[in-house]
Amino acid sequence: MVALTCHLGPAQLFGAGDGPLRASRLGSNLRLEWDANTDRHRSTISPGFARLAIDVEAMGGTFTVDGDTVTFRRHVSSRDELAHYVRLLLFTVPAALTATLADPVHLNRVDGWLGETHFRIEHVESISPLVLLDDAGLTERVTSALQSVQFITLGQNQRILAAVSYLHRAARLLATGSSPWEFMPEALLNYSKVLEVLFGDSRDAQRKGLAAAGFSEKEIEGRFVPVGILRDILDVAHPRLSQLDGARLQGVYLFLIGLEADFRRLLARVLECAMDGASFSGGGSGGSMSAADQRTIDRILAADNQRRAKGDRATDA
Length: 317
Description:
The protein has helices spanning 79-100, 135-152, 158-176, 184-199, 203-212, 217-234, 246-257, 259-275, 291-309, and strands at 2-9, 29-35, 40-46, 53-58, 61-66, 69-74, 106-114, 117-121.
């Protein structure tokens, strides 16, 4: 018999803590807050939800919910079968709960028992990039960044501005997930867009552009070219039903860890080259949005305005 316990959040959604939620409890006092700076809505209920305590039969076993923990118990006959159920819990339980609840559910950790043996699902290896700066170095970097704002917002530098924005999105995705890897595929997609908007869609064009920016063949082939290859294999921008196995997934994690620093170096060199007169002609549409696209968006917004004018609010069933 194996028992796998998922420790979930937000704990208050399962009656195991206090804090803001999207879900509101019937019969409770409700306090609503709106942060106009970030457009974030917070609702606090008092009293909160009662602590969940239920058993659900499924997948040949039993799910036991106790507050913010969900424990799955069943018999397994092999290590591969155990790994199969671990992957199911890691990727499926938070997604299934989010699909039916008002708040996005995240996974904090998974513990397990196999007979009398306790184990925990953890990464087997990790690398944490570290940037060392003194006060003068920090001042220099902030000054340089602010001085670059005027330059990268000039019309002829639109591609550099787009590249900086894609790097920012990738960094935010890695920083805001419950772990650095929750939004790994989406971060990878944005790194790929940096290369495409600067140098074009073809890998040969990207190689040429990276070489012109001063990167060695080893750096180009080892760090930058694989970004587009992985993006294509993982098919990040489109629906995909298959998943990587644990070893390959861990390998992609480790590859991705240092990319933020690599792409910061790339943007620094690109900016230096542009200030020296270089230009970039990568992929993607530039300039203003086409009239046809603007009309399409206007039709969508007009239909939505009509819906809201009729009092048809988006609510959970």
